[in-house]
Every structure is written in C-alpha cells, then in structure tokens.
Amino acid sequence: MEELDSKKTYKLKKFIKALDSVRAPHTELISVYIPQYYDLNKIIQHLSEEQGTASNIKSKVTRTNVIDALERMIRHLRLYKQTPINGLAVFSGNLAAKEGKKDLKVFSIEPPIPLNTRLYRCDQTFVLDLLKQQLEHHESYGLIVLDKREANIGLLRGNSVTQLSKLTSGVPGKYKTGGQCNHPDTLVEINKSLIKIKNIKKGDLLKSYDFKNKKFIFSKCIDKWKVKKNEIVKILTEDNKIIISSKDHLFFTKPNKEKPAENLTTKDFLLTVKDSKILPVQIHKIEIENKPTQMVDISVKDNNFIANGIIVHNSAARFARLREEAAQVFYRRIAEDAKKEFFGKKEIKGILIGGPGPTKQEFYEGDYLTAEIKNKVLGLKDLTYTDEFGLNELVEKSQDLLAETSIIKEKEILNKFFTKLAKEPEKVTYGLKETKNALEMGAVEILIVSESLDNIEELEEFAESTGAKTEVVSIETQEGIQLKNLGGIGAILRFPIY
After folding, report:
1. Does domain 6-133 have CATH number 3.30.390.50?
2. CATH number belonging to domain 140-170+323-399
3. Interval 122-167: pLDDT, tens
4. What's the pTM value of the predicted model, to 2 decimals?
C-alpha cells in the first residue's frame, strides 16, 4: 500500500473540497469509480449504455444534462491508454448555479491508495465517500491481544478490523485457590488412618513423601478450599487405583517429571504407594467428564500428599515454574505468528498489544519479538477480552496512539522548525514575502506550507525548481495552528540569510 504523504493528502483534500459543495437541482451529476487493473473499455461501454438509458428521462433539461455529462466523461476517459495503477475516480456534470445555464465540467483523480470498488452513480451530489475514506487511517496497524490462555492477531486497515490468526496455549490453570482440586471422596492418610479429603481440617498431618531423603513423612495442611469445576479428569491405573481431579492438578510421573492431569496419556506412569514403597504404575484409562462437580483443594507444607494411594503434587513454586515454561513456549508461538503477518511489510505503520493483567508486559519485554516488529510497537493497553472482541477493544482504547502516529511526521517537521526558530533563528524563515525571498536565493532546504493557504501548488513548483523539498501540514495540531498564525508558511534553510 502506497503511503499517503502530506502533498498527496493536501491534493486529495483540495479535490474533495472542490466537489463536496456541488449540488444539482435533479439527479444529473455522474460519479464513476474504476478499480485498479479494471478494463477501461468496459467502463466506456457501460457509460455509452447509460446514455441510451438516459434518453428515457422525462425532463428535457435533466435528460440533456445527463447525456452531455456522460459524453464529456467518455471523451475524458479515452485520453487514458489504460486504467492508472491505483484506479481512477471521475466526476462529471453541469455546475451552473442557475437552472437552464450550462457549465459542463469533468474532474478526475488517481487516488493515492488503490481502489477496489467499482461504482456508477447519477445523483444530485457527487459520491465522495470512497475518497474521504482514504484520508482516514490510511495506514495499516498490527494488533496482538493475549493472556496465558489464548491470543488473537489481527489487522486494522481503515475502519476495518480483521482477525488473522487465533492461538490457544497449553499453560495449565493457576495453582492458587481453586486450582489443584480432588474429588471430595478422595482418600488421604491422616494420623495413620484414611479419611476423605472433604473432612480434612487445617493443621491436620497428611502422609506425604520426602523425595530428597526417600522416606515417608507427615505434612501439615496449611489451607483448604471448596471449588466448583465444570470439567473433571478420571484416571484409572493398571493396578485398579482410581483418582478424580481437576484438569490442572499436578501428578508425579516417571521418570522424575510432573504433569497436569489434562496432559496425561495412557503412556504415562504415576507414582503409587504399595507396602510402604514407591512404585511406578501405568495409566490404564483416562476419562474427561463435562459436568459441574464440587471439588476440594488443599495446600500442604511439604509439597505433596498421597491421594487414593497415588502421590500428587502440591508445590506452588514448582507448579508456577511449569506454568512459566509453558507460557514462554506460548509467547514464542505468538511471536512467530506476528512475524509471519507483520515482518517486512512497509504498510504496517505500527503494532498495538493488549490484554488483561501483566501478560502483555511479559510478552513485550521478553526476548520473543524480532527487533523490527518490537520497534513498531506503539503501546500496550489493558483489556477485558482476548478473543475477536479483544481486537476491537484494543482499537477503541488505542485511539490516542493512532491519532498521534497519523500526524507524527508532521509534528516532527514542525517541532524541528520551531526549535530552530527558538535556538537558531538565522536557520529558518517564515512569512510569505520572506520565504519567497529565501526560495529565490536557493537557501531553502525544506518548505513548510499550511494547508490553509490558497497558492500551494505555485509555491510547491517554485520550491521544486530550486531543489527544495515541500511539506504540506494540517491545522489539526497545535504546531500546525502556530504555523498558520505565522502566515501559514515557513522554511528550514540550507544556510543563514542575514
């Protein structure tokens, strides 16, 4: 996509302004949009057919104006050998203020951004919406919304948000309250007797295993919670032990690994207790049941306990480490997708990242994104959602960033001008007479012109003949208003003028 620079912006604004106020007493103003690469001969043929249709218009004045406007447009289009690379917008009609008078005109412009819409309209006004849209957010922006569970990558082009890809992670759920849960009827050993976990109290001593010293110990219950889960995992081992847990409950597996229940397979071996010994036992069957179930979560001092004869995990630190490792894998996947969608694409003017909590900072500050993509990040925003709604929420909450980037080049050149005016006044000039004088001397490096001036094309041609670059700036910024108040024209000089 071609970048819409200040001169193209001004030219387009001026073109739209000239046609926007035109009104006809009847539907006789012709608007035609020709998409890029479209066969111009087909358009001319269509307009000729419309002339035939227009001959049926009852009003003689309207009929004549429509047929003449179409004829003028056909003649104008025949001047082109082919459709310009970005397409063409053409407008024709009688612009005379009084009915019965004639002032037949045709206007055309090659849009700075490619057209992909074909349109023919005969109305009381010219159709200018498609051109006006090219002045609004003409650049594209990359969008990334994420948390540790899912991520969505999208693209903002104009006012349209498109979802490019969706990712889900393998990060297990949080281990805190309501995390690693067991069925209320799960049996645990307390004071050398078996008791259902739902009857455990804080301070009770539960049988657990000291892996370092390879012996059984009793560990104090630090806390206990009741939690409702919508999904549970039922595990049956080869020695007919059954345990029911939440998906994120951690199990010890052979050899020296830990896995949440949702990642276990029938190839895994759990650690079971038999005759006061720790033995590996293979999983025979795993079932996931989707039904609301009241579960119990406990925390013990020494990180594990024995549930239905199987050693299960209760280590906050180790579980957190597993979550962090899984999150890093997920972040790398997100970064790879972002690289695929955004890397090396000049039309991507910036990238926005959002999400709930600190995840977005972890992703952005970590070593995941390529330097090129990271340098394009405009900012991070707190969001409620991370799905497709999150992409739209990110755009809504980033209007400040988008508005700033759309005029950043303009602000940079004006800030440079005003800084020199304050610190090195001999290296700038302003005012129409003074700036023209500097142009005549060949002293102007950059001519800065406010869009509020009327004779911009003349000044631009003058600057071009002296090798100076021209920047047309808006009056939508404080700096732009300042320049307008200085006469609407200024210049950064190659050398001082005394």
Report:
1. no
2. 3.30.420.60
3. 999 999 999 988 876 556 899 999 998 899 999 987 667 889 999 9
4. 0.45
